[in-house]
Write a structure and sequence with these properties.
Largest sheet: 8 strands, mixed
Distance between the termini: 86 Å
CATH topology: D-Maltodextrin-Binding Protein, domain 2
Number of strands: 10
Number of helices: 13
Shape: globular
Order of helices and strands: HHEHEHEHHEEHEHEHEEHHEHH
CATH architecture: 3-Layer(aba) Sandwich
Oligomer: single chain
Mean pLDDT: 92
CATH class: Alpha Beta
Number of domains: 1
CATH superfamily: Bacterial extracellular solute-binding protein, family 7
Structural class: alpha/beta
Length: 334
């Protein structure tokens, strides 16, 4: 009797392996959710692409890998994203050059003022340096999932900024961790107001700051444009971005999952770059139609170029090797 009971229990246990739904439960238990922080607001161009990326990845992996985006700065500023990744509270982040520079300093050469002003130049430089930058992120414990953009860097202000010296008489915002614009302001003799991104809009409301560097798309997405009246016609560069993931988290995925993640990521970031470039141009045209005054800085271009050159030179050896700056400049000129 006892033997029959044990045998029946064993058969039941064996049969349970093949019961309907058991495989789905095992899959659900082994499903991986990658937590990604971003400053991009819900409903923005970035989030539309990120949500489509998640859907694509889930389909490719039969729902075993998904992406959960924490949008709109709910996880703090980009410095907080990097800290939380290192602490294991986040798995990755979609960040601008400011966040990327906290992991790999030399990548900031792509944001050196006045160096890369057109998208075709940026694409060419990133293609040539892609393997090198990816290797540097790997050595720091991160996997670079894909490159993105934020748009063309312009100056938004409450009064016309015609030449660099005009920045001395305004209250320009500098992102707390943005070394490059802070150095540019030092070169021209201006004093930055250092704040995190979530603090900028309240500071514009109170008048603590009245000038911000931003792309048109970012200024509209974050509603900064509602508090400003002028924008520079010329751009000083392209604001870069990328999505990074903790390497240990990436390595924990199966080979098939890693392949699916990287392939869907490449598709998503290609779509993202197209969307951001298109939407940034549209945002710029829209704010001009709505009354923001365009400032043509061409008469003082030589002064802007000289300040940009001095900034690049002063940062060489501190943020990026001088040899890298020279190689990027050569690639831009090709």
């Amino acid at each position: 009797m006892k033997r029959r009971f044990v045998l029946a229990l064993s058969i039941a246990a064996l049969g349970a392996v093949f019961l309907p739904g058991t495989q789905e439960e095992a899959t659900a238990q082994s499903a991986v959710t990658l937590r990604i922080a971003t400053l991009a607001p819900e409903g923005s161009s970035w989030m539309r692409v990120f949500n489509a990326w998640n859907n694509s990845l889930r389909q490719r992996t039969n729902n075993t890998v998904s992406l959960q985006f924490y949008a709109g700065g709910t996880q703090g500023d980009e410095r907080d994203f990097i800290r939380k990744i290192r602490a294991g509270q986040m798995d990755g982040a979609a960040v601008t050059s400011t966040g990327l520079g906290q992991v790999v300093r030399p990548v900031l050469v792509l944001s050196a003022p006045g160096l890369i002003r057109e998208y075709r130049q940026l694409d060419r430089v990133r293609r040539r340096f892609d393997r090198q930058f990816r290797g540097q992120f790997e050595r720091e414990g991160y996997t670079l999932l894909g490159w993105g953009d934020v748009g063309k860097a312009r100056l938004f202000s409450r009064r016309a900024i015609n030449q660099p010296s005009d920045l001395r008489s305004v209250r320009p915002w500098a992102w707390r961790d943005d070394v490059i614009f802070s150095e540019f302001l030092r070169v021209v003799g201006a004093n930055p107001v250092r704040l995190g991104v979530p603090e900028v809009y309240p500071a514009l409301q109170t008048g603590m700051v009245d000038t911000v560097p931003s792309s048109a798309l970012a200024a509209v997405s974050l509603q900064w444009h509602t508090r400003l009246s002028h924008v520079s016609q010329q751009n000083s560069g392209i604001i870069i971005g990328a999505t990074i993931l903790q390497k240990a988290r990436f390595d924990s995925l199966s080979p098939d999952q890693q392949t699916a993640l990287m392939e869907t990521s490449e598709q998503a970031h290609q779509a993202l770059r197209r969307a951001i470039r298109r939407d940034d141009d549209r945002a710029y045209a829209t704010i001009l139609r709505r009354g923001i005054t365009e400032v043509d800085q061409t008469p003082h271009q030589a002064a802007w170029d000289d300040a940009a050159r001095q900034t690049r030179e002063r940062l060489a050896g501190r943020l990026y090797p001088r040899s890298m700056l020279d190689r990027v400049a050569a690639a831009v000129g090709d």
